[in-house]
Specification:
Blueprint (H helix, E strand, L loop, with lengths): L9 E4 L13 E4 L2 H10 L4 E5 L5 H16 L8 E5 L4 H10 L3 E4 L7 H8 L9 H6 L5 E5 L5 E5 L10 H8 L8 H4 L5
Parallel strand pairs: 1-2, 1-3, 3-4, 4-5
Antiparallel strand pairs: 6-7
Length: 191
């Protein structure tokens, strides 16, 4: 990868990418959690990146468990973990933070050139990528309710879960530092 030295080795977990799609010499691509854990303990990596596609809620929990196993393993606990997400999902970020994942970055799943941006997504993470910092910029009153195996609906807990949160409100208030200026955040309606 151009932006990294040849010695900066990255292990990337991605369910659906093929090995022949990544010509980078310092990048090892794996497609299963078991292989990821095996490779991480077998080699010395500078970064482990987990690419999450929101296939299902069950897959999401499996990836959190993989991160937990990597952070509990004495051979891999020192390796920084970077989680790549398609959205600023507060609940997911909290789960990742609780198991020890240090960094997160976000990608646009609708981007037809996503493969071309993988190098920037895998660049050495900075303090702006720290999960604790990212969570401070997301409203704590977002509530996630599953409506199927693959989808959730988001409600505003500050407004008694009576307000469904759509993309415009999420991108303008809820998932930004601007959430502190939201009228619902400032005038909680719990009763």
């Amino acid at each position: 990868m151009k932006s990294h030295s040849k010695n900066y080795k990255i292990l990337l977990f991605h369910y659906s990418m093929r090995l022949d799609e990544w010509p980078y010499g310092n990048l090892t691509l794996v497609n299963s959690p078991a292989t990821c854990l095996h490779k991480a303990t077998e080699n010395n990596y500078d970064l482990i990146a987990i690419f999450h596609e929101y296939r299902s809620l069950k897959a999401r929990h499996a990836l959190v468990e993989l991160c937990s196993m990597l952070k509990r393993n004495r051979y891999t606990l020192h390796i920084p973990l970077l989680f790549l997400l398609p959205s600023r999902h507060r609940e997911m970020l909290e789960q990742l933070h609780n198991v020890g994942v240090e960094y997160a970055r976000f990608y646009d799943p609708r981007d037809p050139n996503l493969k071309n941006h993988i190098e920037s997504l895998l660049a050495k993470p900075s303090k702006e990528c720290k999960i604790g910092r990212i969570m401070s910029g997301i409203c704590p009153h977002i509530n996630y309710f599953p409506i199927s195996r693959h989808k959730e609906i988001l409600y505003c807990g500050a407004y008694r879960n009576r307000l469904v949160l759509g993309s415009p409100r999420l991108s303008h208030f809820c998932e930004t530092f601007n959430h502190k200026n939201c009228p619902y955040f400032n005038c909680l309606k719990f009763h």
